[in-house]
Amino acid sequence: MSLDLVDAVVLGVVEGLTEFLPVSSTGHLTIAEGLLGLKVDDPSVTAFTAVIQSGAILAVLIYFATDIARFARGFVAGLRSAQGRQGEDWQFTLAVVLGSLPIGVVGLLFRDVIKGPVLRSLATVGIALIAWSAVMVLAERRATQARGESQVTVRDGLLIGLAQCVALVPGVSRSGATISAGLLLGIDRVTATRMSFFLAIPALTAAGALELPSALDGGIGAGPVIVGTVVSFVVAYASIALLLRFVAKHSIVAFVPYRVVLGAVVLVVIAVT
Question: 193 near 250, Cβ under 8 Å?
Fold first, then answer.
């Protein structure tokens, strides 16, 4: 499957803009691929979209480098002693670590289904964009936002990690699923968003590493992969700060009208073509 540098830039921009917004990066990439004339369920194209997500993850690693270093120290302290396990950083980090396991297991077990034509279809994207919007509205209506980062438990991490698995369906949105789950558990919106970023690190890193050989062997080549990843990194780094500022003062329901309209447009276009 051929994919030129212009395609790589476009897809890199789409990935960087949408990876951390609750609008579904995979759904937007699928739509963009269709508009570019690419075969959306081609294994090499699917692999390419997974690989360029590593650019967005690098942006998270750099943006949150200080926090990640602190969590790492807290985690190591917890492994070493019972006193260390009383620390807030140990609890939060353990929640993220354990919360990262479900999507790894589900992703490996259902890898062929996830990459298959049913989920990698524009119809699935359109339906999921609309359907998950209802969950986002419900989450905000039920949200108490009574707990902050210091009160996140291992149970929270596992439940949010399970919610992240739903985002394997293009159109749901990984951040939309995890933030919604956090809100339903009574966690404040900023903490839920930060947790969504940290949960993305192992999930997207593993997906990118797993799919890299398929992207290169499928004829796309190293050039477009590198360009798409770099563009994704630059755009994602800027979008992280914007999203954190936004969720501090606004509900994620603000994204629902866009999701519903886009989903409806996709379904109408499919119906008339």
Answer: no
Cα torsion 194, 198, 200, 202 to 10°: value is -170
Contact (CB, 8 A) for 172 and 166: yes
Start-to-end C-alpha separation, the chain: 24
Give the tens place of pLDDT for each residue, 198-223: 998 988 887 777 777 766 666 677 88
One-letter amino acid at 64 equals F
Nearest to 151 by CA among 200, 196, 188, 99: 188
Distance in angstroms (rounded) separating the CA atoms of residues 145 and 192: 9
Give yes or no for residue 1 having a pLDDT over 60.
no
Please work out, in degrees rounded to the nearest 5, the angle formed at the alpha carbon of residue 44 by the alpha carbons of 38 and 45: 35
Residue 5 CA to residue 223 CA, distance in Å, equals 7
**How many of the other CB atoms lie within 10 Å of CB of 146?**
10
Range of the domain at 256: 5-272
CA 157 and chain centroid, separation:
16
For the chain, how many structural domains are there in total? Answer: 1
Longest dimension (CA), the chain: 64
C-alpha–C-alpha distance, residues 2 and 23, integer Å? 27
Could you give the dihedral angle defined by the CA atoms of residues 268, 269, 271 and 272, in that order, rounded to the nearest 10 degrees?
Answer: 120
pTM: 0.90
Cα separation of 190 and 171, whole Å? 22
